[in-house]
Design goal:
Layout lengths: L1 H6 L3 H17 L1 E2 L1 H8 L3 H14 L4 E4 L4 E4 L11 H10 L26 H13 L3 E7 L3 E14 L4 E7 L4 E6 L3 E6 L14 H4 L1 E8 L7 H7 L7 E6 H10 L17 E3 L25
Antiparallel strand pairs: 1-3, 2-3, 4-5, 4-8, 5-6, 6-7, 9-10, 9-11
Helix pairs in contact: 2-4, 3-4
């Protein structure tokens, strides 16, 4: 049994095999150099690790002689049971790729996240498409149109702070859009090249960087120095650079009052956007609290 053989290995070896599987499953390929760079081992040791993984899961990888790389096979069955949160941590921050052992935290902690539905095999289809620069045929549940089938060209994952999205060109609307990962029902990679207008370089909202100036709310905060200390403000202002495509998510997550005259009431509005003009041309502002209120020029 593969599980018995894994348990007899050292922790370091199991960690390297887990990394091999993550690369295969979510990137679609693994090279010896990936192991060498990640674990600072010799090429011969990396070769042994790949051979060991192939013995444990003989149907999971094939060798592409043309590309000189091991690729994910059609019959892939994971050896390791990675939690969704660990996978996102690895994809977005490049750590958490060791064996997914179950450990208790060193101190008591609790969270308030809702249990979003993300299927890891479906996610792997999307991440492999991103890595290859390929288009994907999807079944997707939208609030406005229900379950639909469409073709998209994905290029990035995006964390709104509450849930994960996929940034992609939508061939149905001919626009770059965000897709909530939990609303995908199916996905399959399409053959062929993508067009120039479908590539990330053409996504204006994604490539535009805007700087937001956040200050303590002038009306709702009695002691602004408390907010200044909490957010590490300098000179009473916190300057945040973000992609225009992500600005609405940021402003919603932190309940930033985006009105001209800081007129939103309520204890949740600790911050006010001082330079509202920075949002000119940003398209997802329906998420920004008060963005359409008290404005003379929008």
């Amino acid at each position: 049994m593969s599980s018995d053989r894994l348990s007899g290995m050292s922790q370091a070896q199991r960690d390297r095999l887990a990394f091999v599987e993550l690369r295969l499953r979510f990137m679609g390929e693994i090279r010896r150099q990936d192991l060498v760079a990640r674990f600072d081992i010799q090429a011969a040791a990396a070769t042994r690790d790949i051979a060991q993984y192939k013995e444990l899961a003989p149907g999971n990888m094939e060798y592409d002689t043309k590309g000189k790389v091991y690729v994910r096979a059609a019959w892939f069955r994971p050896l390791f049971d990675f939690p969704v949160e660990r996978v996102f941590t690895w994809l977005s921050q490049s750590y958490g790729d060791a064996e997914p052992a179950r450990f208790r935290g060193v101190i008591a902690t609790e969270g308030t996240s809702l249990p979003g539905r993300v299927d890891l095999e479906l996610l792997s289809t999307l991440t492999r498409a991103i890595h290859r620069g390929a288009a994907v045929k999807i079944s997707y549940r939208a609030l406005s149109s229900g379950l639909t089938t469409r073709e998209i060209v994905p290029f990035a994952l995006a964390d709104s702070g509450l849930r994960w999205h996929l940034r992609a060109f939508d061939r149905r609307s001919s626009e770059f859009r965000d897709f909530v990962l939990g609303r995908f029902d199916d996905a399959s990679i399409l053959p062929g090249e993508v067009a120039d207008h479908e590539t990330p370089a053409q996504d204006i909202q994604w490539n535009r960087i805007t700087e937001l100036e956040l200050v303590p709310h002038p009306a709702n905060v009695q002691h602004p120095d408390t907010i200044e200390a909490e957010y590490g403000m300098e000179g009473g202002v916190l300057k945040v650079r973000t992609r225009a495509a992500m600005a609405g998510y940021l402003l919603r997550r932190w309940n930033v009052d985006c009105t001209d005259d800081h007129s939103l009431k309520g204890g949740e509005h600790h911050l006010w956007l001082r330079n509202r003009q920075a949002l000119y041309g940003v398209t997802n502002l329906v998420l920004a609290p008060g963005y359409g209120e008290g404005s003379k020029d929008w």
